[in-house]
Amino acid sequence: MHNKLSMLLCLTLAAGLFNCCSIGAAASDGESDAKTLSIVTTIFPEYDWVKQILGETAKQADLTMLLDSGVDLHSYQPTVEDLVTISNCDLFIYVGGESDDWVEEALATVTNTDMTVINLLDVLGDSVKEEEMVEGMEAEEEEEGDEDAEDGETEYDEHVWLSLKNAEVICQYICDRLCEMDEVNADTYAANTQAYLEELDALDTQYEEAVSAATCTTLLFGDRFPFRYLADDYGLDYYAAFSGCSAESEASFETIAFLAGKVDELGLTTVLTIDGTDHSIAETIVSTASSDNIQILSMDSMQSTVSADVEAGATYLSLMESNLDVLTQALN
Q: How far is CA 271 from CA 189, 212, 222, 260, 284, in A?
């Protein structure tokens, strides 16, 4: 994989140099050299946060979401076109977890010394959580030659965007960097961010109130569990078939039996899944449990949100509001 990426990076350098030459030629021909702010984000939440901060000025910006084909963050690999787009942007925003290992090598080839780079895990610092295995979870099978397993490198939970509290910190940081990059529109960015932070805070309060009024404080996922940050924000317990970053897709009989037993033991009425997945594990848990009338509901992890969803009106806030509706049903 590294050899493939290295080849892509070489092609990127060549393409980037060609692009720079083309831009230079256009300028020498007397064409407008007005600068458009070019921003590249890897995933939807970052993309939407930037849109909210830019507001009306987004019409003058070139804003790109790389993962726009429904490919999961954990399996994404950049194309040559993606790498060229990154190499020519003014601001690049990425998550920074193990799934983004390709970024470091990609950025090493960038000759644009004015580029601003934002790593979400770095922004959050000590509040980033280590990947967690809870009772009943299917253990990850270690592949032969797994470098992380060999050197004992800590794996962090990458799904930081699923916390409204994290979103507030990150949006303020993005705003500050944009204000430094574009002083002309700094007041607009600051005002937009303040208004957006108030919306995030209001929704955070709604989550707190919903959990306070709930009859149950335990979630059970027949799926991966990328919602640990959300669960910790509101003091929720959880059980799941897999951790949030797990590559496993098949659950053992022991895992199914354990989760079905928890459904019965806790009197749960809902088994949860995440968006865009096969729900067969959840269905098996429901059929194995003794309890009747158990529903299967999905929470949106925003890992498969694409431009078509944006065009249909999807925003970070709207998806988190939908998640609150599902959460409220699951806890009552």
A: 41, 20, 6, 9, 10
Which of 307, 308, 240 minimizes the C-alpha distance to 277?
240
Picking from 44, 60, 180, 172, the residue whose alpha carbon sits closest to that of residue 116 is: 180
- Tokens 């050299």 -> residue: 33
Instruction: For residue range 86-116, list pLDDT tens digits in order.
Output: 999 999 999 998 889 899 888 988 888 899 9
What distances in angstroms separate CA 36 from CA 16, 23, 27, 182, one per listed residue? 17, 13, 14, 11
Cα–Cα distances in angstroms (integers) from residue 320 to residues 200, 221, 227, 230, 302, in the given order: 10, 18, 12, 10, 9
Q: At what angle do helices 44-54 and 186-212 cross, to 10 degrees?
A: 130
Name the residue among 111, 113, 95, 102 with its Cα closest to residue 80. 102
Distance (Å, whole) CA 237 – CA 221: 11
Q: What share of the chain is helix, strand, coil (3-state, %, to 5)?
A: 55, 15, 35
pTM: 0.87
| pLDDT at site 35 | 56
- Which residue shows structure tokens 């979400």? 120
Angle (deg, nearest 10), helices 316-330 and 186-212: 10
Total number of residues shown for the chain: 332
Helix (H, G, I), strand (E, B) or coil at 57: helix
Question: Two tokens at 71?
Answer: 């490919």
Distance in angstroms (rounded) separating the CA atoms of residues 40 and 240: 33
In sequence order, the β-bridge partners of residue 40 are 64, 92
Q: Which residues pair with 93 in a beta bridge?
A: 41, 118
d(CA 230, CA 59): 32
**Pairing of the two strands 91-94 and 62-65:** unpaired
Rounded distance, CA 73 to CA 6, Å? 20
φ and ψ at residue 137, rounded to 5 degrees: -70, 145
Task: Tell me, rounded to whole angstroms, the distance of Cα 66 from its chain centroid.
Answer: 12
Residues 6+ away with beta carbon under 8 Å from 183: none
